[in-house]
Amino acid sequence: MTIKFSLIRKLQTPNISLVFFIFEGDDITVYSLFNYLDEIEKEYFRRIKKGIVPKEKEYKLFVMPETGRKVFLVGVGKKQDFSLKKAVIGTRIAIVAAKKEKIDKFAFLSSPMGNAKKTRDFYEAMAANAIMANFEFNKYKTPPEGGFACIREIEGLCLKLDINISEGFRRGTIIGEEVNACRELANTPGGDMTPQVLAEHASRDAKGTKIKVSVFDEEKIKALGMGGILGVARGSDEPPRFIVIEYLNGLKAKKPIVLIGKGVTFDTGGLNLKPEQAIYEMHMDMSGGSAVIHTIRAAARLGLKKNIVGLIPAVENMPSGSSYHPGDLLRTMSGKTIEVLNTDAEGRIILADALTYAKKYNPSLVVDVATLTGAAMVALGQRYTGLFTSDKKLEERFRKIGEETNDPVWPLPLSTDYEDEIKGTFGDWANTGKNRNGGATTAAVFLWQWAKDFPWVHLDIAPRMTTIDGEFLAKGAAGAPVRLLVRLLETF
Q1: Domain 188-491 adopts which CATH fold?
Q2: Active site residue 348
């Protein structure tokens, strides 16, 4: 469910619920929003104002006498420590609180946040994160009487209408909707998600936009010599697909940015079968592919004047009598061979073929997005995406954009020193390192062997595959790194 945002000077609905984002130690009466209360409500707060300010990441609800208006106070910490990240969390808390109280509409005070760009970015973030917090994966649930709780409308009260706030709301709505669409797709159970279904979703989402989608079937994949994709797909009854998404809305002379998304629609680990506790959420192993589809759709909806290509190798990794085996040697599109040491290190194998295919576009930048390794989660926890690149300027840019969009990344080592760890015995490169140490880096270094002909960034989103406690988002797919990639496409 999306949210309608409007910027207004006067309250349109009598007794509409109000949300105060309030700093630690502040007096509620000094906030401009206080002036929108009626005299009875103002007097009520004047009498009880001491000790009513909530702590950071908490809220308090007050029901006004006589009018019944609901007023939420959301704590955002100390004024001197305020940041976009705190505003984002405060926004999510407001949505969660309002839904809990079965409120579908509220108003808050909005005012410029400095220059035009800062104002746009701030309200873009607020709108996107409000929509993200409004999301729940209810597709397979029977609706309760009256339907699922959700916020339908938010009014931004502004003393003077500001086009930059309105533009922030507009952009944030598009981005938030596409993040949620990414989450919806990634949450889809493996029994309902196959390479063909993923391809159909990409094609359906392109309708009404300037996006062109081509889907290569198994015969075309064979003709291209994509032995990595064919090898991983062998064990499944579901044939592989290679999805090509083109949004060419920039100057013809401009080299495109290529986004590559891992599209393993369910990952059992193959013959190296995953243990019970590790297999449950593997319908989300196509989160990278989902992020690429919806990043490019967001770019099209925003009308970006850029050339963007998305590549998604889509397979299901299953154990069967026809599965690829540990010890197999797979010849990739590039001609390089992969020695399979572990069939559960399948993502890097299919991405190798996609990276080779990316060369045909003579790209200005290639970014691959993949739930690639548990090792990245061990290294970083679940709050940062793993970032790998040999280009320090790209590393700095991605870190900066990640902080700006609240879709953070953190660099991990990428060095030729690690190449000895993945040199094959009977093939060119082995798909795992010689031991379990540094698994996120050896996986990245493996991909690097197919990515040395162009500027390249690898994002290991395994740490950010699902939401975690304290984010005030529904359980399930997190939608990373759509917000980061949209900002990258705009600014690169």
Answers
A1: Aminopeptidase (3.40.630)
A2: yes
